[in-house]
TrEMBL record:
It holds the Pfam family Pyr_redox_2. Coiled coil: none annotated. Its cofactor is FAD. The lineage of its organism: Bacteria, Bacillati, Cyanobacteriota, Cyanophyceae, Nostocales. It comes from the Bacteria. Gene3D superfamilies: 3.50.50.100. One of its GO terms (molecular function) is NAD(P)H dehydrogenase (quinone) activity. Keywords: FAD, Flavoprotein, Oxidoreductase. This is FAD-dependent oxidoreductase.
Length: 384
């Protein structure tokens, strides 16, 4: 544990994810003592994952679903570096960024999210649009929405990954574009079941919803290659091939496979799990380096592994802030135990949502969407 001290310490936050947004907001309300606080984030704003599919479907503006980190750091009196972290030197407590001299820290907290896995599939990096970083996803989505008028024939979208993110994205895109043009959406998933980390009751329900909305499902199919195809007018097509030999030409392919960790973390000396995520204890501290905290998608709780979802990154925010405070004061840190069963409200893109908790699932309804909308707007209100 850290020795209680009156000297000012450097607390450095890497990544402006959900937990760190809450840490900054909490610091504004109840400042951490004797601390020089800094944030390094690639972007000025960070998207709130709960409203992201709703934004794609056209329910929320960009500002409504983004937290302004510049504003938050200003209010928190924190230094803000807009840059990308590329490595850590844990012997000397320094962080390396793409375009800055090394930054020193005494206490470090990491909340950098995740990136979609298997972008190493031939052609995926080049031709697919990854769901993360979200900034690029949204820029590409906006471009497609603008270009769609130029299409001579129907528009065909491929979505690779049938977890909650892929399913929500498919429904949101279908809802937004369906009146614009003749549209085909194809959803590919390696497993035979969609949303494999969820209960069977919601897997079954979401499959029904997708089929009713005319989204073509390719379950048990592993995408193995993407390649650029013939040009039609000014528009490139991408050919998607599966291991089974199934092949399809698409206008755009979105890559929403399960979460993975960035490569650079593996050389830092931090203990990670087999997938490269930082292993943390119940106090949200690295199991190998107690002065380093981690939360959100990038962290795996050794004793309580849970799915990579924004809802956990949000819930870890407050306990993270409280444990940072205790660490600074030299007090005993408190455990955070995530709920085993938690409520998921999943938008279906058409002004409705479904609800799930454990093996209890409710079908799409407007009431559930109003409830989700109320929760999400209330969450965002605290950052305005
Ligand atoms: C399409 C889609 C829909 C989803 N919908 C939902 C949903 O409805 N509900 C839900 O709970 N979850 C949802 N998720 C999952 C959710 O997005 C993630 O679980 C959540 O964003 C994780 O939050 P986080 O705080 O860990 O990281 P993030 O929200 O990803 O934030 C990480 C931040 O760190 C920054 N960063 C990353 N690397 C670096 C670096 N090297 N240097 C500096 N800064 C860096 C990023 O720019 C980003 O701002 C969805 C995911 C997708 C892809």
């Amino acid at each position: 544990m850290y020795q209680k001290s009156q000297t000012t310490k450097k607390l450095l936050l890497i990544g402006g994810g959900h937990s760190h947004a809450i840490v900054l907001r909490s610091h504004i309300n109840n400042p951490l003592p004797n601390i020089n606080l800094s944030l390094i984030s690639e972007n000025l704003e960070t998207p709130y994952s709960g409203m992201l599919p709703g934004h794609i479907a056209g329910f929320y503006t960009h500002d409504e679903c983004h937290i302004n980190l510049q504003h938050l750091t200003n209010l928190a009196g924190a230094k803000f570096y807009i840059n990308r972290v590329i490595n850590l030197d844990l012997n000397n407590n320094r962080v390396f960024c793409e375009n800055l001299p090394p930054i020193d820290f005494d206490i470090l907290s990491i909340d950098i999210g995740s990136i979609p896995a298997s972008l190493t599939v031939t052609g995926a990096e080049e031709y697919a649009i990854a769901a993360k970083p979200v900034k690029r996803l949204l820029a590409e989505w906006e471009k497609l929405c603008n270009e769609i008028q130029d299409y001579q024939s129907s528009v065909r979208i491929g979505i690779v990954g049938g977890g909650a993110g892929g399913v929500e994205l498919a429904l949101a895109m279908q809802a937004k574009l369906t009146n614009e043009r003749e549209l085909e959406i194809h959803l590919y998933n390696r497993d035979r079941n969609l949303m494999s980390s969820y209960d069977y009751s919601i897997q079954k329900l979401m499959k029904k919803v997708l089929l009713r909305r005319n989204i073509k499902l390719h379950l048990g199919e592993t995408v193995s290659k993407l390649e650029k195809k013939s040009k039609q007018g000014n528009i490139d097509k991408i050919n998607l091939t599966c291991e089974s030999g199934l092949s399809l030409e698409c206008d755009r392919i979105f890559w929403v496979t399960q979460a993975s960790a960035p490569q650079w973390l593996t050389t830092t000396g931090l203990t990670t799990d087999k997938k490269g995520f930082i292993l943390i204890n119940n106090k949200l501290q690295s199991v190998s380096h107690p002065h380093i905290f981690a939360s959100g998608d990038i962290a795996t709780m050794v004793n309580h592994p849970h799915p990579k979802a924004g809802v956990f990154a949000v819930r870890q925010g407050k306990p993270l802030f409280n444990n940072l405070r205790r660490y600074i004061f030299g007090e005993t840190l408190k455990s955070y135990i995530p709920q085993r069963d938690y409520l998921s409200l999943i938008g279906t893109g058409d002004g409705k949502a479904v609800a799930n908790r454990g093996n209890f699932t409710l079908p799409p309804s407007r009431l559930l969407w109003f409830w989700k909308d109320w929760i999400d707007r209330k969450f965002m209100q605290q950052f305005k």
